[in-house]
Amino acid sequence: MPLLSSLNQSIFLRIYAGLLLICLLVALFAQLLITTINAERVQTYREDMASAAFYLIDSGLSRQVTAQERNFWLSDVSTLFDTKFEIEPTSKADFKTSEINRLNKQQAVVRFNGDTNTAEIYHKVSGENNVLHVSVNKLNEQQIKGIGVLLLDDLSYYRTLAEKQQRLQQIQKFFPFKLTLQSVNKLQLDTDQKARLYRKDIVIMFRDNTSVENSSIRVLAPTELQDTVVDLGPIPLFNWFPLNLIISITLISMFLISLGVYALIFPLERKLQLIQSGITKVREGKLNTKVKVVGEDEIAHLAATFNSMTEHIRRLIESQRELTRAVSHELRTPVARIRFAVDMLADTDDYEDRMSQRDYIDQDIESLNGLIDEILTYAKLEEGSPKMDWEDVDLQELVSQIVRETNALGKSITVKVGNMQKGAFAQADRRYLHRVLQNLAGNATRYAESTIIISAGLEKNEAFISVEDDGQGIPEKDREKVFIPFARLDDSRTRASGGYGLGLSIVSRIAFWFNGRMSVDESPTLGGARFIMKWPKSQLASSIEADEITQKSSEKKYTQAQGS
């Protein structure tokens, strides 16, 4: 399972493993192909060589008139080849159709047994429904000489040189090598070879060649004609690995490897083309482009990152547009009030009025500073992955601090600590987590009637903080909208209650970078709104980048809220 998981997640590991598998399969295929081809070649070689010898035996047998002469002839041939030749009925061997066709063409049938290394050879007797049969376990020099003796015996029935040459032309089609009549003086022979020919001995010459040509043997059989011999050959020895076969197998193997490599690379190329196409579309301004790459490997992760990036860019642009429109709208009121106060300062000489207008201007400037601070904080969280200083935060201590700070504002609302778990620690950036609780508590004080409860703790592998109030609550259909920048709901949540509509948006972005989530529902205790933030108790890394699933979830909520 770990190996399969690694192969699924690494396209390069799949390519390396695929190449190794392809090379192994091609090597096995090449071995099987060579074995099959050589088996066919050696079978053809055996049958061709046997056909030549058996044709001469059959020709000699057909010249024997009586049964006794036939028996004597077969006995002599058996002695000559050092193996026993027999005549059997055709039906005894149970020949296949292809073998019967060979027998009818006066060709030998060879049945080779690899276990015993023995060849059973059959040849049809001319004019009869019988076959010549012999069992051979090896090819030796005596058998090669036997072919020469049989050929000389066949040619002895033809007296003149012209008749002998004509006879050789007639039987050439049954021999896989050349048959010619040569003058001894024209052959490049040493003294010993010439002497043996003059003594009417058959001479066998072996040629070992390391070049393209195969090694071969040559048989010289002296005829009754003066200085004339029958030249058999060259007779090629069987070569298991001829150069043309090796070249052919190599080319086929290279072709198969090329196909296999193309099959491995094509999906990668296709995926990269999809990503390139997506990049081109994004460059043209189509930020809603999605690259659909199936899998779990590096390219699929790259495509997922690309999709997340384009979504993030699109959302940033949309957020920037919304922020620009909202900021321009939010700035008009304090700027208008400042302008009005300045005009009042110019029109009055009363000291108290001038001080009053100055105080109004200070309040509006402070309001502008607060708005700018909120905008900068939101922009920082929105533009990219902020640096998080992860540490183990004591949730109980942090909640107590927020309760103390909120009560210190002197508002007529009671802020209490809810159910807390002692020793509840969770990894978080304390500064940002403090900002979350501060914003939630500040939001609750604007809408609560008398009581706010702040809680925190651990549930399984998640940490949570909760702020609930006894205000009018938030309708279910509007709960997603509260996290949109500068969002306003009904009259119960107007500007008269304070705030700029960015506090909850900042909370939502901090939750996102905590790899967590924000939710709002109805408080089961106080009946008002309850805001809950949950995030992993232990972060996976010191710096967490945008998680694709969280990103999509956030985008979906943002889109739905905008549509509403």
Automatic annotation (TrEMBL):
<keyword id="KW-0067">ATP-binding</keyword>
<keyword id="KW-0547">Nucleotide-binding</keyword>
<dbReference type="InterPro" id="IPR036097">
    <property type="entry name" value="HisK_dim/P_sf"/>
</dbReference>
<keyword id="KW-0812">Transmembrane</keyword>
<dbReference type="Pfam" id="PF02518">
    <property type="entry name" value="HATPase_c"/>
</dbReference>
<feature type="transmembrane region" description="Helical">
    <location>
        <begin position="12"/>
        <end position="34"/>
    </location>
</feature>
<keyword id="KW-1003">Cell membrane</keyword>
<keyword id="KW-0597">Phosphoprotein</keyword>
<dbReference type="Pfam" id="PF00672">
    <property type="entry name" value="HAMP"/>
</dbReference>
<keyword id="KW-1133">Transmembrane helix</keyword>
<dbReference type="InterPro" id="IPR003661">
    <property type="entry name" value="HisK_dim/P_dom"/>
</dbReference>
<dbReference type="InterPro" id="IPR036890">
    <property type="entry name" value="HATPase_C_sf"/>
</dbReference>
<dbReference type="InterPro" id="IPR005467">
    <property type="entry name" value="His_kinase_dom"/>
</dbReference>
<dbReference type="InterPro" id="IPR050980">
    <property type="entry name" value="2C_sensor_his_kinase"/>
</dbReference>
<feature type="domain" description="HAMP">
    <location>
        <begin position="266"/>
        <end position="318"/>
    </location>
</feature>
<feature type="transmembrane region" description="Helical">
    <location>
        <begin position="240"/>
        <end position="265"/>
    </location>
</feature>
<keyword id="KW-0418">Kinase</keyword>
<dbReference type="InterPro" id="IPR004358">
    <property type="entry name" value="Sig_transdc_His_kin-like_C"/>
</dbReference>
<dbReference type="GO" id="GO:0016301">
    <property type="term" value="F:kinase activity"/>
</dbReference>
<keyword id="KW-0472">Membrane</keyword>
<protein>
    <recommendedName>
        <fullName>histidine kinase</fullName>
        <ecNumber>2.7.13.3</ecNumber>
    </recommendedName>
</protein>
<dbReference type="InterPro" id="IPR003594">
    <property type="entry name" value="HATPase_dom"/>
</dbReference>
<dbReference type="InterPro" id="IPR003660">
    <property type="entry name" value="HAMP_dom"/>
</dbReference>
<dbReference type="Pfam" id="PF00512">
    <property type="entry name" value="HisKA"/>
</dbReference>
<keyword id="KW-0808">Transferase</keyword>
<feature type="domain" description="Histidine kinase">
    <location>
        <begin position="326"/>
        <end position="539"/>
    </location>
</feature>
